[in-house]
Specification:
Strand content of chain A: 15-25%
Radius of gyration of chain A: 18 Å
Shape of chain A: globular
Number of strands of chain A: 14
Oligomer: homodimer
Structural class of chain A: alpha/beta
Helix content of chain A: 25-40%
Distance between the termini of chain A: 21 Å
Strand order of the largest sheet of chain A: 5-8-2-1-11-13-14-12
Chain lengths: 260, 260
């Protein structure tokens, strides 16, 4: 069984044309079937600003009213997604840009209002991994924008980290799966002030220890909780690494590898 | 062999939420495999205006500089395409939104500058009908935004009528094909001032006659020239009809049917 690599690339790389090109070349060089999930970056906020639509973030999450939903649909589902697809085509990767609505790949439900009304934000209900597998078998490389849909035809803004993890977990039915989160650091750091203090392997026990001493900081905790959950649900390996090191991380163990 | 229906829906319907919903319901009701190609409508111009990007049209064609290309990629490839896909999903049509870059379905070349520099506008070079057929065989319904790509990774703005005709012509390799242009009139009119003077059947000879007496006016001529070319290249039937009458046009002969 081929190992499938599911990679999430964050907004900071999307915002930097040179860094994005470097990342896409590395992504294209990876052997075997692969899936890319991209974030949105600051372009959505910039476009919203110019359109006179105010951006409100609560704990790093975008409040998505109807006008903001239209902005993220345009920017993530249109501009960013199609630019990535066209670039991958020149790198001989037959990419296909998708939102969750396309081919009903990722169904979600509008998040119920509790303390905060996030608006048109989706919590994932179901991934159609059979459909995704069918694209992979045809040598297509799915490139997902972080937009899903609901059974009543709403488009919903969805966290790209969560989308990557949900897709990776469901793809376990068909493949051995490696999930890779690319971001702006070389991995999970022992010392947040030292970029070279990368933890090579992280187990749940070690993770608890680092949290206890405060070495692993607040922003990393939801990402790592999510990543350990993916391992529990059958993903073989989770890697957290710098976007520039994605090829080395997958093949030679750069970055941080999470183990059960 | 199933008859494949390739339908182009224009911007005037895209701009009108109620008319779009009516059209999509009729589209969903059509039996057999089908493909939708949509135009962009005025939303691109409105978004461009708000972003401070000037719209220049020459003979009904949009001059597409780099900022305008980003707008049409956002609006056609993102907003309009994904809204249509999500709506079709609620109508039990497993739609998949595509630009020509996705799965390398429609390759184009940037139009050479002659009298007018149209900018980032694509002339279609090649349709991968095998890839499109593969989606259809999986009961997916392709929904194309009028954006193509070039071998150097440019996204290119492409006329939706031309894209519909190029796709229909190439799909002849796999299916018997009916090509339908939906617009705001009930068909090709004998008398442009009388909405009920629809010509039921139009042959090249009749077309020449109507042009000679000036009954068929300037705007229809490129559309009809294009349509007759599609017939010459193997498309079985071309229909020109009102968006509201697409189901009757395909099954009961409403609108204008072009014959060789």
């Amino acid at each position: 069984m081929d190992t499938l690599t599911v990679i999430k690339i964050g907004g900071n790389v999307i915002d930097d044309a040179t860094a994005l090109q470097r990342f896409l070349s590395a992504f294209a060089s990876l052997a075997g079937p692969k899936i890319l999930i991209h974030g949105g970056g600051k372009i959505a906020t910039q476009v919203a600003d110019k359109l006179g639509i105010q951006t409100t973030m609560v704990e790093g999450r975008r409040i998505t009213d109807q006008p903001m939903l239209e902005v993220v649909t345009m920017v993530y589902g249109g501009l960013v997604n199609k630019q990535i697809v066209a670039k991958l085509q020149t790198l001989d990767i037959n990419a296909i840009g998708l939102t969750g609505a396309d081919a009903s790949t990722v169904l979600a439900k509008r998040r119920p209002v509790k303390d905060i009304d996030y608006g048109m934000v989706g919590d994932i209900e179901e991934v159609d991994s059979g459909q995704i597998q069918f694209f992979l078998r045809q040598d297509l490389t799915p490139v997902f924008a972080p937009i899903t849909y609901s059974t009543v035809g709403e488009l919903l803004n969805t966290n790209a980290d969560t989308m990557a993890s949900a897709i990776a977990v469901d793809m376990v039915r068909h493949n051995q799966v490696t999930l890779v989160y690319c971001f702006e650091k070389k991995g999970v750091l022992k010392d947040p002030t030292d970029d070279n203090s990368v933890i090579n392997e992280l187990t749940p026990t070690l993770y608890a220890d680092y949290k206890a001493v405060g070495a692993i900081n607040k922003g990393m905790i939801p990402k790592l909780d999510n990543a350990f959950k993916a391992l529990d649900k059958g993903v073989s390996k989770v890697i957290i690494c710098h976007a520039d090191e994605v090829a080395q991380a997958v093949t030679q163990g750069a970055g941080t590898t999470l183990k059960k």
